[in-house]
Write a structure and sequence with these properties.
Structural class: alpha/beta
CATH architecture of the largest domain: 3-Layer(aba) Sandwich
Helix content: 40-55%
CATH superfamily of the largest domain: Aldehyde Dehydrogenase, Chain A, domain 1
Strand content: 5-15%
Largest sheet: 5 strands, parallel
Strand order of the largest sheet: 7-6-5-8-9
Shape: globular
CATH class of the largest domain: Alpha Beta
Distance between the termini: 64 Å
Number of strands: 11
Number of domains: 2
CATH topology of the largest domain: Aldehyde Dehydrogenase, Chain A, domain 1
Radius of gyration: 23 Å
Amino acid sequence: MRVFDTSETLRATRIPTLTYDRSQMTDYSQFATDWAARAKAASRQLVTATGEQKNTWLQKSAALLRKRANEIIAANSKDIEAAPDYGLTSAMIDRLRLDAERIDKIAAAMEEIIALPDPVGEVFESNVRPNGLLVTKVRVPLGVVFFIFESRPNVTADAAALCVKSGNAVILRGGKEAFHSNQAIHCVLTEALRESGLPEAAVQLVDTTDRDAVGAFLKLRDGIDVTIHRGGKGLIERVANEAAMPVIKHYDGICHVYVDATADLDMARDIIINSKCQRPGVCNAAETLLVHRDVAADFLPTAADALKAAGTELRCCPRSL
């Protein structure tokens, strides 16, 4: 059952608030359609937003994340407490966990995006055709992004920041394992949107963990312009199979570190230890070390000693062994 705060038809300049009686909801098709319509209306407003407005939102979001750190940590503690019931490994729980330092890093990442140039309106190619016609390629927003991710609450802020900076509205759907953490972060982002004069529907967080809701969103060929996912192989395969719109996807990824013959070997050793041992459970932790044969005899023994001292098991090809 849908409950609107207004009976007016949805327009690009008016974005109604939607609430739902979940006890009566068995079909998410209308639910997804309404959320996508709000995002589409917000995306039209973002097209005309200035770079200054978007950067103001990023700055306010970063400040509020730090200010509300205790509230976010309290919400995250609920997810950590429930994590064993979901069968999460220790590495997965580590990815889920938030503390003051990690929240500060999330805020810092949003501030780094401020320094990026505004891509909207950038002319990246222009030429005159033989008939004298000037053809120019200009970067424009995609429109509405449906972003699905698993138990990484920092992605809530990361994905929202990149989408809004590039002029896109985003519908976020996080995993059930990070439900409370994602809600707390989303509340901060929404407050910052309101204070910055940007539409709150520019960043929406799907507030149900029901898997059927994902399927309903993936059917919206006309309401959603592109789907992006970050997660395990099962999620990726489901999205690829069900999505009616374009998907930016990946499958199995392996992170390599390559040490060239001209590398600073001390720096290379430090990079390898950092990329493998700092947080081995994250998706960008190093998994493979490739070393140029001209420096292998000098480098591999010292790298191996450092990795083993940090508790890393080495699985070597015959030559490196």
